[in-house]
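Journal club prep — side note

Before the paper discussion, L.F. wants everyone to see what a predicted structure for a comparable chain looks like in token form. Sequence:
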Amino acid sequence: MKEKRKVVIATASWHPDEVKMLEDAGAAVKILPDREDEVYRSEVISSDALIVGLLPVTRRLLEGSPRLRIVARHGVGYDNVDLKAAAELGIVVTNTPGVNSDAVAEFTYGLLLAFLRQIPHSWELMRGGGWRTPGNLEAVDIRGKVLGIIGLGRIGSRVSRIGNAFGLKVLACDPYIPEQDFKNAGAERVSKEEAIRRADYLTLHTPLSEETRGMIGAKELALMKKSALLINTSRGEVVDEKALIEAVDRGQIAGAALDVFKEEPPRDRAIATHPKILVTAHLAGLTKEAMYRTFIAAGTQVVHALKGERPPYALNEPVNPRYLKKD
């Protein structure tokens, strides 16, 4: 009997429909906890496909996995996967673009409104028997304010369109997006520096790369309005966290709302407990609907690879792709 191809799912969550899809394609599915340990490494090196969340997929792991055909990311970002090594070894890497665009865009405005209107503070105050304070009366309308967006991809474009509905003036920076996409999103194309300088609310929607790592540091924070709010739902390392804390402490900006961090969960409590930085636990893309779309999209990529087909959401161009090899 032909040996079933082994698919490892190593994420914090998965769906039975995803597993059934893979089993119907002739795979034997192994589900692991979202933990980088010896079990994870030993299972991956004997697998044909890996579906992974945020666990690292390093060159060393890939080089020790001779059967591996595909690494399918649960999600959009892929900075935890060594794309170059995968391509050299013939392993295709995929992600699931667009599946959580609405969820992240909506959460961005949740952070914005929660910070400006002090919703978490008021909730905790009333839970303790309190009532509103004079500080609660300092809130402002967002209509007529300037929203700066860095990164006008699927999520950034959705944020822009929602901003238009709120009556915000939307500025956006993205050197890789054509002019028509700015028009479709209802955003004025500006430089990164102009977006940072003019924004009342600056929101980040870029992937993590060598170009974007540390993109918002002391220099950029010094350009922002003193009344400005920084929002980050992209990747933690896009922002220099130390510089951010210093800028908030010095009153260079009003505050920040962060869903992502350099280290997750952050061991340094300075940012997580700061009174002017609203923090959430990397939740932006995790609605039931978005997660289900993610599961099915990732499973679909694996099924294509196991059939000897190029997955639709391939991120790299492997040399001598293993998914083309016959058993």
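L.F.'s comment for the group: The chain has two domains: 5-98+288-324, 101-279. Keep this in mind when we get to the figures.
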